Amino acid sequence: MSWEYLGYLASALLVASLTMSDVVKLRWLNLAGCIAFTFYGLAIGAVPVAFTNGLLAFVNIYHIVKLKRQQKADAE
Questions:
Q1: CA 38 – CA 36 distance, rounded (Å)
Q2: Considering only Cβ atoms within 10 Å of each terminal Cβ, which end of the chain, N or C, has fewer?
Q3: What is the pTM (predicted TM-score) of this model?
Q4: What are the angstrom distances between the C-alpha of 49 and each of 14, 24, 44, 72?
Q5: Could you give the maximum distance between any two Cα atoms of the chain, in Å?
Q6: Number of folded domains in the chain?
Q7: How far apart are alpha carbons 61 and 55 in whole angstroms?
Q8: How confident is the model over 37-64, as pLDDT tens digits?
């Protein structure tokens, strides 16, 4: 597998995430893109790409948890 394809997939996921009007869907797609870019960065030896997207993945996880907790609190 050419690592370029993983980079293109990661880019497509990030672009698709920004078309979402639902913030939770945006975060999930963005998380998938960040994870893909993290692996891509590691595969090609681009540590800044891997590091930045790894951190952004954690930011997305934080916001997903926060949004889910807020939805649960609103339901109660």
A1: 5
A2: C
A3: 0.91
A4: 14, 24, 10, 34
A5: 49
A6: 1
A7: 10
A8: 999 999 999 999 999 999 999 999 999 9
